[in-house]
Amino acid sequence: MSPRVITFHYHLTDTENNVLDSSLEREPLSYLEGAGQIIPGLEQALGLLNERDKRKITVPASEAYGERDERYIVSVPRKDLPQEEIQIGDEFLPEQQEDAHPFRVIEIAEDYVVLDANHPLAGVDLTFDVEVVNIREATEDEIEHHHAHGLHGEGH
Ligand code: ZN
What angle do CA 34, 19, 123 make, to 5 degrees? Predict the structure, then answer.
C-alpha cells in the first residue's frame, strides 16, 4: 500500500486543560504517513481513523516529546551568558551543536542561572481533539521529498 497523506484539525490541551496549540483558526495540518512529521503516538492513532472522524486522542509524554531529563538542566555562572539582562523564559542556542534544543532560563539567582534544554512539552501528557479533514494517496513528489504538500498536494 502506498503511503497516504492525512489532513486534520487539532486542538491540543494538557492535563489541566490549558490550550497549548490549535489549528482551528488556521489551515488544517497535513502529514505524510511514516515520515515522522508528527509525534508517534498521534500518528498511530490518526492512522486508524476515517475522513470526518472526530476523536479525543491522549498521548502520554513518552510517546509525545519524551520525559523530562534532569541531565538537560544545568546551572551556569551568570557571567558566562551572552547578555546582561536575563529574564525567565529567555532562550539561548548553544554554539557548536546544530541539532540541540535551545536552553531556556528557568531560574535566576544572584550569580548563577539555571538553564533547561528539555523540549517545552517534555514530560507533558497531551490531549488532541482531532477531526480528520481529508485522506488521500501521497503523490510521487511527496514520497520523494519525505513530507506532505498540503491538503491537495500542490503546496510546498
Ligand atoms: Zn516537498
Answer: 60
